[in-house]
Amino acid sequence: MTVIGIDKMSFFSPQQYIDMVELANARGEEPDKYLIGIGQTQQAVIPPTQDVVTMAANAADEMLTASDRKAITMILFATESGIDNSKSGAVYLQRLLGINPYARTIELKQACYAGTFALMQARDYVTLHPTEKVLVIASDIARYGLKTSGEVTQGGGAVAMLVSANPAIAQINQDSQYLSRDVMDFWRPIYADTARVDGKYSANIYQDFFKAIWTRYKQKTGLDINNFQALAFHLPFTKMGLKALRDVLPEASETQQTNLMREFEASRVYNKRIGNLYTGSLYLSLYSLLDNSKTLKAGDHVGMFSYGSGAEGEFYSLTLRPHFKAGLINGQLEELLANRKQITIAEYETIFDNQLSGPLDRQLDTQQDTAKFVLSGLKNEQRQYICH
């Protein structure tokens, strides 16, 4: 049987960030509330010259070869930060990246969960069309507002994944278990540019969903915690995943508990410094795990817990391929993080309030943005994207 799964992964987040200690001091909070209680150390800041389309393009462009662009016959763009209520972000992406014009271009939405659904659809499509490839994008900007309870869990970025036959990174197994319920833990009305969230309630729902789906997964598959070398979680903030992991650790031996905790720490290295990227949070965590683990090897099973408020959750597994690190861009995240610039809280607040919005024509200053793809402004109510 042909193996179908994730062949390549790439990531992008803008060049500016704030330090969580400085944010805590500015908000009159104890730094450990953010560093330990939330589990975050830094947060990406999204300038007006970047949106979900440009971040997606910057992420995907770095990993795609000319032959990839010809072989892609579907682009699945998962986001809850869409720029248009009608036109798919995937259409813009197709043009910017020079992807095969005879490709489907679709945008998907279900809070933070949509990236997982996109990945499953990509797997099923390639199973039927093994000579073709699907580009899956999870791109988002987490916005809760200045001086709100959710401010510490902001951030943004894009994860790009190429799904193909005979993948380099991992096989996507056919073992998904999922759950959906109408829950008002988090939402963003059409008229609002920031999310509404009941933080404590949402965290409880996340844990409840994980425990319910994990129990069902074990019942349906006959597998248990001993079958996994690592568990990766949706990490809007990294303490949330840690709480979920602790719920199931008692099922493992002491040695297994130690191993799973070690791999969890590897899986949140990058999320701690980027912050929340909604649909991409689980997949940045997977990237972090694969890049930072010193012990994972071919054939190991990684459990994946995806959650989207509102609410939908899914648990499934990946099986690592013989050369899984080859599917990552060597040194990509280290270089990105090393080249970022720390800005002050005052500068961050100005940027937060200066996002492109409204129908009026506007020209943005793109000179300070070093990314390849940038948003240069609005003309006749049309976003203007350029390539540096």
Automatic annotation (TrEMBL):
Asked whether the UniProt record includes Transferase among its keywords, one would answer: yes
Q: Does the keyword Ligase apply?
A: no
What EC number(s) is this enzyme filed under?
2.3.3.10
* Cross-referenced Pfam families: HMG_CoA_synt_C, HMG_CoA_synt_N
The record's GO molecular-function terms, alphabetically, read: hydroxymethylglutaryl-CoA synthase activity
**Domain called Hydroxymethylglutaryl-coenzyme A synthase C-terminal: residue spans:** 262-362
* Protein name per its UniProtKB record: Hydroxymethylglutaryl-CoA synthase
Species whose genome carries this gene: Weissella sagaensis
